[in-house]
What we know:
By secondary structure, the chain is an alpha/beta fold. It folds into three domains: about 1-100 and about 225-295, FAD/NAD(P)-binding domain; about 105-220, FAD/NAD(P)-binding domain; about 315-390, FAD/NAD-linked reductase, C-terminal dimerisation domain (Enolase-like, domain 1). About 20% of the residues lie in helices and about 30% in strands. The longest helix has 16 residues, at about 280-295.
Amino acid sequence: MVVVGAGMAGVQTAVALREQGFTGAVTLIGAEPHQPYDRPPLSKAVLLGKAEGSAFEVDFDALGIELALGREALAVRPADHELDTEAGPVPYDVLVLATGAEPITLPGTEGVPGVHLLRTLDDADRLRPVLARQHDIVVVGAGWIGAEFATAAREAGCAVTVVEAADRPLAGALPAEVAAPMTAWYADSGAELRTHARVARVEPGAVVLDDGSRVPAGAVVVGIGARPATAWLTGSGIELGAHGEVVADDRLRTGVPDVYAVGDCASFPSGRYGERLLVHHWDNALQGPRTVAANILGESDAVYDPVPYFWSEQFGRFVQYAGHHAVADRMVWRGDPAGPAWTVCWLREDRLVALLAVGRPRDLAQGRRLIEAGRPMDPEALADPARPLKGATAEP
Ligand SMILES: Cc1cc2nc3c(=O)[nH]c(=O)nc-3n(C[C@H](O)[C@H](O)[C@H](O)COP(=O)(O)OP(=O)(O)OC[C@H]3O[C@@H](n4cnc5c(N)ncnc54)[C@H](O)[C@@H]3O)c2cc1C
């Protein structure tokens, strides 16, 4: 068994193969030189120096998992069942692709001093002293990473300006009315959010916007999204989708025999939501590998059909989301979005299909189960934040 990519999805795949009883050779190949580590702490505790690092607590030796780190996979030759790497070819019986995603760069700023991305431990190590020196910081993009980075930078005492091309934060992720209350979070934390603001260029000490205005910048952090790290698969015969992701089936198999794909690098058809999902969140990289291992080992005919889940910690708030609201026909608020804790529920034909909970983890936990169960809800009861979510079903 050869797993490419030693992030969450790759590590969990190797571990799941062992947990599910596989006793043959397992090799985990990763491009980064570091001991495999978890990414969410990078924009939180690690960035602020509150945690040394975030290496996974997995005893690879004890599990008999061979680590080949600092080694990039360059190509796959399915007809030969071989993977080409920097250190030569590696034969496989079964190959799992778990190469994750890489941040989208701002055109013209690649390699410019003072312009940073935030995806890897090395990125976080470079940014930690920037925060400690309390530079003026410009964050490009008010998405999840931009918001978390801005939070950490404010906590470190930096002056922070977030420039966002859209009219609101999280424009690609949430509807306008749900993102609207989040705009105030920036100002409350002392960060300036400038919407409709496009970067024209980065100059030494400043970001120049397309309206000609200059924003002082001792450092620039670009958080404008990520795309699957799959360029190396071009020409392999493995199908890549519209976003460059590996196209997997509902068992996380690719169209090529003995090749699976999981985590941020792969999309899968969701039976639950009736569309193909490309999920760039931690829980998907935790759950998917169990399905991959089960299908590889033929232990069960395991179909992957999760209720997607993620969380974000921003501006002192714990934000959690479960489901997929694109398929909803109705939205119900629980609580005042101007307050510290509220939830939005999305329904389709009165069944809960997604929810966003701010500071209401109980809503999230109960809602996630209700989405899985597909029970019809009573929208009026749902709108009462004092009532437990699980008590708002249409049937007793
Ligand atoms: C800063 C940050 C904070 C985050 N916070 C949250 C959060 O709060 N909540 C949440 O739900 N999600 C969060 N996420 C998202 C979550 O971390 C990802 O969804 C998760 O890491 C995906 O795991 P993965 O293994 O699929 O990919 P990755 O973690 O990207 O791992 C892929 C690995 O493959 C390696 N690789 C790539 N190409 C090759 C190659 N050709 N050869 C060999 N190796 C290769 C890469 O170097 C990388 O180490 C965060 C992400 C980041 C970057």
